[in-house]
């Protein structure tokens, strides 16, 4: 019955990327007829290239280019046949060279993504479990999640948390055969490392633990013969380790390879790794270039190349420290992440650096949390010290200016990243605005509040007073909410912004699909607070609608915007709320731009149902508003059943009747997980029973002596304008025979119309049933700011 439309994660990512594309941050096109690796031409101008993953610059080496050309001359642009049948002759030479490099056989694949798709389904058994490091590369996560179709258990673990990994091993140990922990050797955003040696010790302690590493960012620039970060830590591959390396990126060519400590397992992958069998083999040019690159790796020359790169890395680190540029992780890798916090700062800094002749990548959601964006800068041998110094000098010049222009600050940055950055910052502009923060609606002028929120759901002054009475002083953590009312005035005391917010305990799966919530509820049997978090939200978990008034000036005045957003962040930080959720917006380009710039990502909220312009006097007057199909539905599924029941409307009922109503409400709540919140306590319904703004529409079976209600609708009356059937209770034993739910919907409309209300606000869920009675379905958006992506990614892994 209570079907809810859920957000799709890819829609959120597409929204972020589309916005970044408009700002010319993503999906750029290189211009020019040649490319030397040192500079790149974009938008008609050349810029020094600080965004490559070819850290040693081998992709521009003449020997690799000549080898690729010769391979094309000898074997053509491709060898169009599955490698399972025949491999072109260059493959054998490449595999021999890689065998020499690693002292054991390797399996060559077309790229790392296909390597994971070939290896993971073979090495992981049906009775194994996979534990993914939260920051392991998408290609690993995607290949692993496909095994859920085979029933393989998959868990997501916070980044590099070996204590949590050990606890997970102990939890899963008796239930599965092997536990595969999958991680990167060098992580592609912050350039930090996996604790490989500690992981190996853990694998020696727990024989079930097996390790799977993607080391594509650790290859060539690190280790003897450029064998990579992971192999350098291990020296040789134990039987319980699988390693994926690359022939692309720093290696200089194209392709990837798989090495298993278990030789039998490696042979199985080579024999029938799905993507090896059913995809084309590497083209001759790529294999030819890889052969040339492998020979360089096996020579002493690789040491010189590594030293030259490390010299540049050390130089860049030294300059960043000298100029106090906020580097998130200081290490020896060629990947650097400069913290910018909110996206607007990152966008502007990236654009202005490009205008000055420096191309850098921007790290943004979903690779990093939306308020932890930054500049992802990579150093290669192509970069000379002159332009490295120029880049840092320009960073030092632009950084404080852009921070100030976007309303960002050192305080906000340290809060986001939990660091103690220190850099010369320019003071923010003084403000002529006054922010007033209250913690009760009783401190807000009723006339001022209702001027903006009269007739909007349960958002009028009396509505919030009711919600405060229910939840402000409750003893249970899930029902004890904090209330915040923000008003911003200009120098003339004119209202610029007004908002109502609450901090309350949300179930992390509140908007997840019912099947996910069902699994989570099973885990909550022993601890109802498991997978819950405190959230700062516009409005409350009891009400729909948008309790936010924004004067048009807010959309153009950065000072006003920053005053509002920093106040939200301060509230969330002070009260340890893990998310800020601004919900129930109609889609608007102007709001979208405003919130995305401040680090809020978009989510599609459940749609809401409204019936407006109530003004009919007869049944025929109601029916004419419906489509012909809906009229047939009404005459077939509602009208005949009205004769079977008695409808009563009460503003107050006895305690025993209220207890029965509450039991009916819990029937519905326990059955529907489409919007998974905590069950409201009976005290909420007791407050309804005392309030003049609430009434109960109940349905009983006609002619049945001493019968109890088989259904009830709990309805809020918003100042004679909007009628809000807020909650429903049903005895499901009678729902089919008496069409209880459908009748309650119609009786709510009838009661609202007869009482002179203009609108019925049905809120969310059961849209199809409400639409058949004339409701208009309206899409709603939410903007979410989170200090971590982990919970969102964890939920997505369960979908």
UniProtKB/TrEMBL annotation:
State one molecular function term (GO). pyridoxal phosphate binding
Which cofactors does the annotated protein need, by name? Answer: pyridoxal 5'-phosphate
Sequence ranges assigned to domain Aminotransferase class I/classII large in this UniProt record: 50-393
The protein's matches in InterPro entries, at most eight in alphabetical order, are given as: Acyl_CoA_acyltransferase, Aminotransferase_I/II_large, AON_synthase_class-II, PyrdxlP-dep_Trfase, PyrdxlP-dep_Trfase_major, PyrdxlP-dep_Trfase_small
Q: Does the keyword Acetylation apply?
A: no
Q: Which Pfam families match?
A: Aminotran_1_2 (PF00155)
Q: Which first-to-last residue range defines the signal peptide?
A: none
Is Transferase tagged as a keyword? yes
Q: List the keywords (alphabetical).
A: Transferase
User: From the record, what ranges are coiled-coil?
Assistant: none
The record's section on PANTHER family has:
CLASS II AMINOTRANSFERASE/8-AMINO-7-OXONONANOATE SYNTHASE, LD36009P
Query: What protein am I looking at?
Result: 7-keto-8-aminopelargonate synthetase-like enzyme
């Amino acid at each position: 019955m209570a079907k809810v439309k859920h957000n799709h994660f890819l829609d959120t990512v597409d929204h972020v990327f589309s916005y970044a594309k408009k700002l010319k941050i993503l999906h750029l096109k290189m211009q020019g007829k040649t490319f030397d690796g040192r500079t790149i031409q974009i938008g008609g101008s050349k810029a020094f290239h600080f965004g490559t993953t070819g850290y040693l610059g081998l992709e521009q080496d003449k020997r690799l280019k000549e080898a690729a050309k010769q391979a094309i001359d000898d074997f053509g642009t491709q060898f169009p046949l599955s490698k399972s049948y025949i491999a072109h002759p260059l493959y054998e030479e490449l595999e021999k060279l890689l065998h020499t490099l690693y002292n054991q056989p390797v399996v060559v694949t077309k790229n790392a993504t296909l390597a994971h798709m070939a290896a993971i389904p073979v090495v992981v058994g049906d009775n194994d479990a996979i534990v993914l490091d939260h920051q392991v590369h998408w290609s690993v996560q995607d290949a692993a999640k496909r095994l859920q179709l085979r029933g393989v258990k998959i868990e997501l673990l916070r980044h590099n948390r070996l204590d949590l990994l050990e606890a997970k091993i102990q939890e899963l140990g008796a239930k599965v055969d092997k536990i595969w922990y999958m991680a990167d050797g060098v992580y592609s955003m912050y350039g930090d490392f996996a604790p490989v040696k500690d992981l190996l010790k853990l694998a020696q302690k727990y024989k079930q633990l097996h390790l799977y590493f993607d080391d594509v960012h650790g290859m060539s620039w690190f280790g003897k013969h450029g064998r990579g970060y992971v192999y350098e830590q291990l020296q040789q591959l134990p039987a319980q380790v699988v390693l994926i390396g690359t022939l692309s990126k720093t290696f200089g060519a194209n392709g990837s390879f798989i090495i298993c400590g278990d030789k039998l397992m490696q042979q199985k992958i080579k024999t029938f790794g799905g993507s090896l069998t059913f995809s084309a083999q590497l083209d001759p040019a790529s294999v030819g270039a890889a052969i040339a690159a492998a020979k360089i790796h096996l020579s002493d020359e690789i040491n010189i190349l590594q030293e030259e790169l490390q010299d540049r890395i050390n130089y860049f680190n030294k300059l960043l420290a000298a100029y106090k540029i906020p580097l998130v992780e200081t290490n020896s890798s060629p990947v650097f992440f400069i913290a910018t916090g909110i996206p607007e700062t990152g966008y502007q800094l990236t654009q202005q650096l490009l205008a000055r002749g420096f191309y850098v990548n921007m790290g943004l959601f979903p690779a990093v949390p939306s308020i932890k964006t930054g500049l992802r800068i990579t150093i290669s041998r192509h970069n000379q010290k002159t332009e490295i110094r120029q880049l840092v000098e320009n960073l030092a010049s632009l950084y404080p200016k852009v921070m100030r222009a976007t309303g960002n600050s050192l305080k906000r940055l340290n809060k986001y990243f939990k660091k103690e950055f220190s850099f010369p910052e320019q003071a923010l502009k003084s403000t002529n605005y006054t922010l007033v923060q209250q913690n009760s609606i009783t401190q807000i002028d009723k006339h001022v509040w209702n001027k903006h929120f009269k007739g909007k759901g349960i958002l009028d002054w009396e509505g919030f007073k009711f919600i405060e009475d229910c939840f402000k002083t409750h003893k249970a953590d899930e029902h004890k909410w904090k209330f915040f009312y923000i008003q911003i005035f200009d120098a003339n005391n004119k209202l610029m912004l007004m908002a109502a917010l609450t901090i309350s305990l949300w179930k992390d799966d509140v908007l997840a699909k019912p099947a996910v919530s069902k699994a989570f509820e099973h885990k909550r049997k022993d601890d109802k607070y498991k997978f819950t978090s405190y959230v700062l939200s516009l409005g409350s978990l009891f009400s729909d609608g948008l309790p936010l008034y924004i004067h048009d000036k807010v959309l153009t005045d950065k000072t006003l915007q920053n005053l509002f957003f920093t106040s939200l962040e301060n509230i969330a930080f002070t009260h340890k709320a893990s998310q800020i959720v601004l919900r129930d917006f109609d889609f608007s380009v102007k709001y979208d731009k405003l919130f995305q710039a401040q680090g809020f990502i978009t989510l599609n909220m459940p749609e809401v149902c409204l019936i407006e312009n109530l003004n009919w006097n007869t049944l025929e007057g109601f029916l004419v508003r419906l489509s012909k199909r809906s009229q047939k539905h009404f005459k077939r599924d509602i009208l005949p059943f009205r004769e079977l029941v008695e409808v009563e409307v009460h503003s107050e009922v006895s305690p025993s009747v209220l207890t029965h109503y509450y039991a009916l409400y819990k029937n519905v709540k326990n059955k529907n997980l489409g919007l998974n919140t905590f069950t409201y306590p009976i005290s909420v319904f007791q407050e309804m029973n005392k309030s003049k703004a609430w009434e109960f529409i109940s349905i009983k079976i006609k002619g049945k002596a001493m019968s109890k209600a088989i259904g009830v609708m709990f309805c809020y009356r918003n100042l004679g304008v909007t009628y809000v059937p807020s909650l429903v209770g049903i005895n499901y034993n009678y729902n089919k025979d008496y069409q209880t739910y459908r009748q309650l919907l119609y009786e709510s409309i009838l009661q609202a119309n007869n009482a002179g209300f203009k609108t019925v606000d049905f809120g969310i869920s059961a849209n199809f049933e409400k639409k058949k009675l004339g409701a208009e379905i309206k899409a709603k958006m939410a903007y979410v700011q989170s200090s971590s992506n982990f919970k969102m990614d964890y939920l997505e892994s369960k979908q």
